[in-house]
Amino acid sequence: MTLDGEPLGWVRGGDLAPAVAALLGHLAAKEAERKTLASEVLHLYREVNLIYSFSEKVASTLDVDTVTALTLDEARHLIAATDGAVMLLDDVAAPLRPVAVFGDVYRAARPDGVLASILASGQGEIINDVRADGRHNGDGHQIASMICTPLRVKERVTGLIALSSSAPVSYTAADLKLLNTLALQTASAVENARLFARTVQAARDRERLAALHKELEVASRIQRAIVPSEFPPFPGRLEFDVRASMTPARAVGGDFYDYFLIDKDRLGFVIGDVSGKGVPSALFMAVCRTLIKATARDVASPEACLERVNRVLASEGVPSMYVTVFYGVLDTRTGHVAFCNAGHNPPYVLRADGAVEPLAQTGGMVVGLFESAAYEAGHIVLGPGDGVFAYTDGVTEACNAAEEEFSPARLLLCLARCGRLGLDDVIRTVGEELAEFVGEAPQADDITMLALRYLAPGSR
Q1: CA–CA separation, 100 vs 360, rounded Å?
Q2: pTM higher than 0.70, yes or no?
Q3: Distance from C-alpha of 239 to C-alpha of 38, rounded to nearest angstrom
Q4: Which entry of 44, 68, 150, 270 is 20 to 30 Å from 404 by CA?
């Protein structure tokens, strides 16, 4: 008796012995075939069961590292290999990044020609003799055989699963089919995990943005509260009038203005523009305004006030931050104004007869950079009805859609057209002409204006 050409035994018994031997051989072949088929079915059942179990695991996992580790663990149980990796692309132009690895071959991402070829083609491959494949770099790693397939989401390749053996292995089409099945489920699970991570990050970003908006709203309210906004500011004083407005380019700004009685006969008024934008400038602005107001009550002259403030800010302030300041003191008995201009735009004098003239540029450099900076005062006498219009460069440097600046010349013409208007109307007119000039162009800088008029006692 034989099975596949190999002897199984003998039959002795005369003329019927050959027929009996052939029958027994045939029955043995059928039994062997049945056992082989049963073994294959059992193997397939185990594979299907493992894949089903794997599918359940990755479907319930929303972490990329966990998904890829599960994939590689499943692959090495189903397909013989000494080394393996799941490698992902973070985006189209990014290099392959090993996420899950076993063995030494794939510890570092390498521009292997085989991997690059499979990425480009989007098709899995079996290479049972890697050394004979011209695409392999031969970088010192002992790879004899390799099986690799891409991770695909629709038509987009998002990574690779690679298994290799240091000893020759005959990988089969069934192995590649199995690896493709794992790759299909892994690619979907990785994409879901990435989508979940992006969703979580977006939710966190929205929360942070909402918190930031809330903080900026609070900061904006605080900033509006610390600059005076009630007009007329001193209803019982008939010698002068003051008006001001401030429009930050952002939620908070670096411009400021203030006016305060130093004593019963002297009114201090100040306008400033801190370098930069946003919250840092707003904080620096608050410090500057407080320092100037506090110092003005102890120091008689504007130049001495700014010198002291400059020393404090330059010695204890933030490097590279500074402020331009115009600070004036009006003697309400005489109309005399002593002023100091620390790098600020020179204000305009509004005469009672409607004439407009620029104030002399007297003062010194910006406040807050150099402790040794010196300042000098200028002087002017305002007659009844005369005034001063101060502003920040957000007015004159405001641009329209053609990137043309409003300019000091346009501001001068606008003020000249204001004639003998009240201070409210002066500020409103300048604001309206500025808005008309700028049009739909975005506001790039804070816009601040301060107007003072000397009325003389009892003439208001």
Answers
A1: 73
A2: no
A3: 111
A4: 270
